[in-house]
UniProtKB/TrEMBL annotation:
Gene Ontology biological process terms from the UniProt entry: vesicle-mediated transport
Family: Belongs to the CCZ1 family.
InterPro entries: Ccz1, CCZ1/INTU/HSP4_longin_1
GO cellular component terms given for this protein: Mon1-Ccz1 complex
Protein name: CCZ1/INTU/HSP4 first Longin domain-containing protein
Species in which this protein is naturally found: Chlamydomonas euryale
Amino acid sequence: GAMGTPLLRSDAFRLALCYVDDRRGSREGREHEAMLAFYPSNTELAQGISLVGLARAYSSFVCSFGQDTPGTNGSQAFRPGPPCVMEAEHTMWCVLEMEAHIWLTLIASRHWATGGLSTESMQQTMGALHALVTLLHGPVNTLLQQDPSGATAQRCLQPMLDEAGARLASAGMKDPASLLNPLGLQHGLALMPTSRQLFLASQSLVNQLLLAGSPGPCAVTGAMVCWQGHVLWSSLALRDSEALALLTGL
């Protein structure tokens, strides 16, 4: 079954992340269309479909005991419902509806995360990730309305999951706030205070640079925006950001 997929059985497994649209992929043979993004991105499609299928079935089963429609809490305005949590021998699963019909799944190795793994830490991590997604790209449902094929949503979400997964895999689950600041955890390199409009413009510029294709053999792997020696935003590792910030101030 899905609980025993090679991905989860691997000694190297730490965590998996997935965005799913429960309105998509309902036809047999088209299940993969429900997956908007999956980390690790090199996971075999059949394994990803298996894990997503189990997560969807479990969340539907749990939500069937609730009185309110998932995510609505009895009102028209969407509000995230309680997380669906499943504990296995070696992994812990958390499934949460972040927007109407848009679900985020986090699967973490209990051995890797040790004492930092809890329902609260997983939910906080997922909330921080989706808040960052919304800040940079807007609501996922809006992306799907603009491009019903899902291609735009996939292009926006996959780099976010890749970055979040790599960052969490190195830092562990102990400080989900690490997702809120692209410069890392507790360090001395601060972003220059700006207006919200300028802040969002910086995010958009970096995002476009990261998604841009390179005419040469080298792909764009990171970007930093500075103004008169002050850092506005960076997607680079802390040491690289510090080095570039020093250069811009020379």
